[in-house]
Amino acid sequence: MTYFDHLSNVYRSVIQQVMADPAQLPSLPASTFELRKAVQNPDLGNEALAAICSRDPGFVALLVSAVASPLYNRAHPPSTVSAIVGVLGREKVDRLAMVYSIKSLFVFRSIRMKKVYSQVWERAVLTSGISALLAKKYTRVNVEEVLMAGLLIELGTLAILSALKEVSDFPSTDEFDQLCKEYGKSLAAIMLKKWMLDDQVIHVIKSSGCWFDSLSDQLSIADVVNLGLYCALKRTNSGHQLPPITEVAAYRKLPQAAQVVDRYGILAVVNDHEEEIRSIQKLLAV
Questions:
Q1: How far apart are CA 52 and CA 249, in angstroms?
Q2: Which of 96, 175, 197, 238 has the most neighbouring CB atoms within 10 Å?
Q3: Greatest CA separation found in the chain?
Q4: CB contact at 8 A, 131 and 203
Q5: Which three-class secondary structure state does DSSP give residue 109?
Q6: Is residue 160 located within the same domain as residue 94?
């Protein structure tokens, strides 16, 4: 066995140990669990829910930015937390709480890991922004659900990074990509179950990158997130081998006017709404 084969086995062993003991994976903040529990309590009014939200100024900033963003197109967005909760509704507040929590879960010390994390997070935010735009324009699905799913699409990659953070020799790019292919979706599913998210979110993650699969004729959350991921991979020159977008199952569900493709193989609507996508990305950076 060569040294490199030995390292490859070490990486797999570390990841398999983490999969066997999910307690080693990042947990959602207690404040997020408290807020999600409050959202599901029908006896708790908007004022009480707003008071819980207000304990975290960062989350309040996200709510204020969200309700004023192009996602909602409100000429006069509310400014108080209780009014924002009333306008958005409990389910949207719940999903935005998840969006807010995700970024804070992964902290890395090594320069190499920080660089990989930055690239992965940038791609996740771009995926989320493009997916939300497509969902808003062409579906009736919950846009906040799409925002969250777009960010979670890279959860398996981030989980593998987290599992390897104590390893002295970080894998090469090819090795890391292979580990993500082998373990990414399984690790993501384990984390989502640990966080008590519903099966629909897990389905979206498991469907990511399955370019030719289609369960219905209607654009679903999984479809728009897959289209967002495809365009993000193209935009970031990820090196992934991608089929022409015209062969992607979700593409064929778009209205004909939305099927225009630019010379780079990306949906033209993405370029046409660049400013709106950037505003959504900015929202996710709060």
A1: 42
A2: 96
A3: 66
A4: no
A5: coil
A6: no
CA-to-CA distance for 129 and 147, rounded, in angstroms?
Answer: 7
Q: Which domain holds residue 84?
A: 27-105
Q: Indicate the residue among 105, 126, 142 that finishes a domain.
A: 105
By CB atoms closer than 10 A (0-12, 13-18, 19+), residue 40 is: exposed
Token pair in block for residue 24 = 């080693």
The separation between CA 133 and the C-alpha centre of its own chain, rounded to angstroms, equals 14
Counts of helices then strands in the chain (DSSP H, E): 14, 0
- Neighbour-count burial of 110, counting CB atoms closer than 10 A to its CB (0-12 exposed, 13-18 middle, 19+ buried): middle
How far from 46 is each of 37, 87, 88, CA to CA, in Å? 14, 10, 11
* Size of the chain, expressed as the number of residues it contains: 286
CB 226 within 8 A of CB 208: yes
Residues 246/214, Cβ–Cβ less than 8 Å = no
Establish if 5 belongs to a structural domain: no
Nearest-angstrom CA–CA distance, 176 and 64: 38
The crossing angle, in degrees rounded to 10, of helices 274-284 and 57-67 is: 160
How distant, in Å, are the alpha carbons of 36, 39, 77, 142 from that of 56? 14, 16, 20, 24
Take residue 43 and report the two structure tokens written for it.
């006896």
- With cut-offs at 50, 70 and 90, classify the pLDDT of residue 99: confident
Which tens digits make up the pLDDT trace of 201-260? 999 999 999 999 887 888 999 999 999 999 999 998 766 789 999 999 999 999 999 999
Contacts of residue 141, defined as CB under 8 A and 6 or more positions apart, other chains included, come to 135, 219, 220, 221, 224
Residue 44 CB coordination number (10 Å): 15
The pTM (predicted TM-score) of the whole model is 0.87
